[in-house]
């Protein structure tokens, strides 16, 4: 198809280009997808989508220490994950880029709050794919990474997104619920900043409300 040929050409440009050229390829890709009506990456680009994603996940790990064009790369990841295609999610985990995404959340790399927030959103979309994905993310240390992100983040949006991801990791993930509960308690007891306590309280309250609503629904179902 025309879209496959378009991406083939841009993959070639990506493979042979320098950093500036690769950045331009990503910008062109976002614009192309924006103007396309589609219900998935594979529908639009067929197997070329997977070929391109493999290059992107590899390049992200290379450019992370350089802090080069990270927001742009993360926005491309979000576009890939928008349609909840299992093959795309599998590629993210198999490529190893999940560890690089988590590395942006801690002080090892001096990432901006914008980068941290976008990385959290990417990880959140991966977590939405169910219990197995959540368990894998948690097994790789996502909970302490999010804790550090909340403690060190500067902007409310970043902290809020990290808190929401902790909530998502808690849902339907019994293996790690105790760890996440302990994390919320430690954040609530933090004396470093009121904003940290606010994030923890907001997230923890949301989970309590969900649990209460679920129990009420069950009781009503039994009495009806």
Explained architecture:
The protein is mainly α. α4 (47-63) packs antiparallel against α5 (70-81). It has helices at residues 2-16, 19-34, 41-45, 47-63, 70-81, 86-95, 97-103, 113-127, 131-139, 142-152, 156-170, 174-188, 194-223. It is globular. It has one domain: Alpha Horseshoe (Leucine-rich Repeat Variant).
Tell me the Rg in angstroms.
19 Å
Order of helices and strands: HHHHHHHHHHHHH
Q: What is the typical, i.e. mean, pLDDT?
A: 93
Helix count equals: 13
CATH superfamily: Leucine-rich Repeat Variant
What distance separates the N and C termini? 55 Å
- Described by the principal axes of the CA atoms, the overall outline is globular
Largest sheet: none
CATH topology: Leucine-rich Repeat Variant
Helix content class: over 70%
How many beta strands in the DSSP annotation?
0
Uncertain segments are none
Domain unit count: 1
Specify the structural class: mainly alpha
Strand content: under 5%
What is the C-level CATH assignment? Mainly Alpha
CATH-defined architecture? Alpha Horseshoe
